[in-house]
C-alpha cells in the first residue's frame, strides 16, 4: 500500500494526516452527511481532524457541502452523534477486553497488578472519589490513567455494579482498547 493511500486531508484545517487518526464522513443518496468510521459505506468520503472543535467548524461553515461540491445537509445532532459513536466504540472495546480476560476491576486487583507491572493502562471512573484517585495516581506512576466514563457507563459496559477502577493487562487487546480511548479523548479534549 502506498503512503498516499493512508493519508487524507482535513476539509477544515487542510492538514494531511493518517486516515486512521481522522473522522470519515460520507453522504447518503438523500444528501445527508453521516459518520462512516468503519469505512464501509459507499460514496466519496470526506475527512475531518478528530477534534470536537474542528467538527463544529465543519458544521457551522457548511464545509461538507463545499468539499463534496453538492448540497449536502448536516443533521443538527451530528456532533452529538459522533461523540456517542466514539463513546460506544470505546465502551465496546472495554467489554471485549473483559471477555478476552485482559481486564481487572476493583481497587485491590488494580493496585496489585500495578505493583507487579502487568498493567498497560488504567481506566478510572470520572466520578471516582478523591481518596481513590490519589491511591491510583500513586500506584500508577508510569502508567496512563484514562477518565472517560462515569461509574454508570462502566457498570453497563461490564455488566457489573460500582465499577470505579479497571486495569488493562499488557496485551494486543489492550493496545486496541487504548487506541479507542485515545480517539475519544482526542475528540473530547479539542
CATH topology of the largest domain, which one? 60s Ribosomal Protein L30, Chain: A
**Share of helical residues:** 40-55%
Runs in which pLDDT lies below 50 for 5 or more consecutive residues are: none
Derived from helix and strand composition plus strand pairing, the structural class reads alpha+beta
Tally of helical segments:
7
Tell me about the largest β-sheet.
Answer: 4 strands, mixed
Mean pLDDT: 94
**Proportion of residues in β-strands:** 15-25%
Order of SSEs: EEEEEHHHEHEHEHEH
Distance between the termini: 31 Å
| Overall CATH class of the largest domain | Alpha Beta
How many strand segments? 9
Q: What count of structural domains? A: 2
Q: CATH H-level name of the largest domain... which superfamily?
A: Ribosomal protein L30/S12
Strand order of the largest sheet: 6-9-7-8
Overall form: elongated
CATH architecture of the largest domain: 2-Layer Sandwich
Radius of gyration: 19 Å
